[in-house]
């Protein structure tokens, strides 16, 4: 009974950590540019595919992850520079379609480069399950949760301590004012895309041994990440992390106790329920509209 | 072009004329079939355009309503033996009620939160359709009985072409009238500045709910007829990508332009057919076209083309 619950909590925590990374990526880009980047899931896919295919052809794992991460950052910067920044003054809907176009485009390129089939990536440190109070846990889960934890702390420090981090924060509060004090807001947008891409790609690489990698792996992960970001209050970093963990754990509990077929619906039922009562998410500030 | 955008009656007549003469230029049923599919998409897009273009609200879940209509017809007629007309109406009423129930709280939300909520509804609908295989046939979909009315069975592309053509003209006519009514002006006010509209006494929530319900019902009716026409429906018709496709059609053709929505639906229905020559590059080209259109023509195809004809507008 307790072991079962613990089992669900552990698997929920694992996948929740990936949602948290994706949600954080949504929040960072949203803060810097007020764009919802529907290509966030594709960054995860690039990381996962690069790690799986490069290691298969003999590249050491850390290097493979690094290359995937660099590739995703480059793609992120290109999307920001050639699509998002150019449509700076377009409406919300237009910007959403641009990022959706980017995600379709990237999936197309990925299919061309890597093919449509599932790629396997070996777990980083074996597959012998670890027993925890009667529940068993894949060692890879520790890698996922640990990596996500380190990245989240690093992002927190980045925004609190570094000049670039502070510049991104300033831009998110007031783009014009940031520009007036000499912040290059265009570079800030590019940096935010690169940062989110890196988060996604590393997340994709560590989760690949659990989920397998394939060109469409980013679709649901991306949408759940968006759910996490909205649940926590769009643009609220710690909120996105909390949102990701809540969605992951609720999903695992739903799959375990209710129905595994409706696993993917759980996140969306939660978000609908929360939005009905808290239109700005759990931690979002109540917005006032300027006339 | 000018007439298309500004003259209500002229535009409607032009649309009717195009629909009337088009079959003469279509060599066989294959092309007629594509025209019919474009027509169904156009019906949904005209409704969705009311919501996106005039009420300034985005829905990423409209395929869910299309899917409910389609499956209401499939299940009620096929499993429970209802007459198709009754099943279509039942689907439309159900979708209308569902849209009404979710609209009030959700349309209070702004921008991205509304996108999230409608996205959630759409995904939940498609998961339910995929999972309840006892009724819906699961991921493989289900066969749908042909449409019968007063003992006459609608059969073949030639018949369905006119059914969809008449439906489209009717929906466009309704939409144009709505836009020119006091309610339409209220809607545009909502789009311009919701606060300002409220201050001058427009009941913004009521209008938004009405348009949301109306656009959902359009989608449901189109879904029902589509199911009868193709004879086979799958959950893919209700999923996230179909919703995205619909929004894209509206935005591509031109937001806040009823005929733009029709043009967008037609072009983007044809595009994948044309792109099959690119084979493996299909997704790349599609994604590229989406990005390029939005970057270079953020207002959409028809309004951008219309703006290129300033001389005629003055005339």
Overall description:
The complex is a heterodimer of chains A (291) and B (315). Chain A is mainly α and 291 residues long. Chain A has one domain (6-113, 137-277): Orthogonal Bundle (ABC transporter involved in vitamin B12 uptake, BtuC). In chain A, 74% of the residues lie in helices and 2% in strands. Chain B is mainly α and 315 residues long. Chain B has one domain: Orthogonal Bundle (ABC transporter involved in vitamin B12 uptake, BtuC). Chain B has a two-stranded antiparallel ribbon with strand order 1-4. In chain B, helix 4 packs parallel to helix 6 and helix 8 crosses helix 9 (182-192). The mean pLDDT of chain B is 84. The chains are: A mainly alpha (291), B mainly alpha (315). Chains A and B meet through helix 4, helix 9 and helix 11 of A and helix 5, helix 6, helix 10, helix 12 and helix 14 of B.
Uncertain stretches of chain B: none
Biggest pleated sheet of chain A? 2 strands, antiparallel
Would you identify the CATH architecture of chain A? Orthogonal Bundle
| Quaternary class | heterodimer
**CATH architecture field of chain B:** Orthogonal Bundle
Q: Give the spatial strand order of the biggest sheet of chain B.
A: 1-4
Calculate Rg of chain A over CA atoms.
Answer: 19 Å
How many helices of chain A? The count is 11
Give the chain pair forming the largest contact, with residue counts: A-B, 51 and 49 residues
Assign the structural class of chain B, choosing from mainly alpha, mainly beta, alpha/beta, alpha+beta, or little secondary structure: mainly alpha
């Amino acid at each position: 009974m307790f072991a079962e619950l613990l089992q669900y909590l552990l698997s929920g925590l694992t996948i929740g950590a990936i949602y948290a990374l994706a949600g954080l990526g949504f929040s960072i880009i949203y803060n810097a540019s007020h764009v919802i980047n529907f290509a966030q899931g594709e960054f995860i896919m690039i990381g996962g595919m690069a790690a799986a295919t490069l290691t298969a052809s003999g590249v050491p794992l850390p290097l493979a992850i690094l290359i995937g991460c660099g590739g995703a950052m480059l793609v992120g910067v290109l999307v920001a520079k050639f699509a998002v920044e150019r449509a700076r003054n377009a409406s919300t809907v237009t910007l959403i379609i641009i990022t959706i176009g980017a995600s379709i485009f990237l999936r197309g390129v990925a299919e061309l480069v890597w093919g449509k089939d599932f790629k396997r990536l070996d777990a980083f440190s074996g597959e012998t399950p670890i027993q925890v109070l009667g529940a068993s846990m894949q060692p890879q889960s520790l890698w996922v949760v640990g990596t996500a934890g380190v990245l989240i702390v690093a992002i927190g420090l980045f925004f609190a301590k570094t000049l670039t981090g502070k510049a991104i924060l300033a831009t998110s509060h007031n783009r014009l004012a940031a520009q007036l004090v000499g912040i290059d807001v265009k570079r800030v947008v590019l940096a935010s895309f690169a940062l989110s891409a890196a988060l996604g790609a590393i997340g994709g690489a560590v989760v690949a041994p659990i989920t397998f990698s394939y060109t469409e792996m980013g679709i649901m992960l991306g949408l759940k990440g968006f759910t996490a970001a909205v649940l926590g209050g769009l643009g609220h970093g710690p909120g996105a992390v909390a949102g990701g963990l809540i969605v992951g754990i609720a999903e695992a509990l739903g799959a375990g106790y209710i129905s595994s077929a409706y696993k993917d619906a759980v996140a969306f039922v939660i978000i609908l329920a929360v939005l009905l009562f808290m239109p700005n998410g759990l931690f979002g500030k109540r917005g006032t509209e300027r006339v | 072009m000018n007439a298309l955008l500004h003259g209500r009656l002229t535009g409607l007549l032009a649309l009717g004329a195009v629909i009337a003469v088009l079959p003469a230029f279509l060599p066989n049923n294959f092309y007629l079939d594509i025209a019919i599919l474009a027509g169904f998409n156009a019906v949904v897009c005209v409704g969705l355009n009311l919501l996106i273009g005039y009420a300034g609200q985005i829905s990423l879940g409209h395929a869910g309503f299309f899917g409910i209509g389609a499956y209401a017809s499939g299940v009620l007629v096929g499993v429970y033996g209802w007459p198709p007309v009754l099943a279509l109406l039942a689907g439309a009423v159900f979708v209308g009620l569902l849209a009404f129930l979710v609209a009030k709280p959700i349309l209070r939300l702004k921008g991205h939160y509304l996108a999230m909520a409608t996205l959630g509804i759409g995904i939940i609908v498609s998961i339910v359709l995929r999972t309840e295989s006892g009724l819906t046939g699961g991921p493989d979909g289900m066969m749908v009985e042909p449409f019968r009315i007063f003992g006459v069975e609608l059969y073949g592309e030639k018949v369905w072409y006119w059914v969809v053509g008449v439906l489209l003209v009717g929906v466009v006519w309704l939409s144009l009238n709505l836009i020119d009514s006091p309610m339409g002006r209220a809607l545009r006010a909502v789009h311009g500045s919701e606060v300002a509209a409220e201050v001058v006494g427009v009941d913004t929530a009521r209008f938004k709910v009405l348009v949301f319900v109306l656009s959902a019902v359009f989608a449901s009716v189109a879904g029902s007829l589509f199911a009868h026409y193709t004879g086979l429906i799958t959950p893919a018709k209700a999923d996230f990508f179909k919703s995205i496709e619909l929004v894209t059609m509206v935005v591509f053709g031109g937001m806040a332009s009823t005929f733009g929505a029709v043009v967008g639906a037609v072009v983007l229905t044809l595009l994948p057919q044309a792109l099959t020559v690119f084979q493996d590059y299909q997704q790349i080209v599609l994604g590229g076209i989406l990005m390029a259109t939005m970057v270079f023509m953020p207002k959409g195809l028809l309004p951008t083309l219309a703006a290129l004809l300033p001389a005629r507008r003055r005339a």
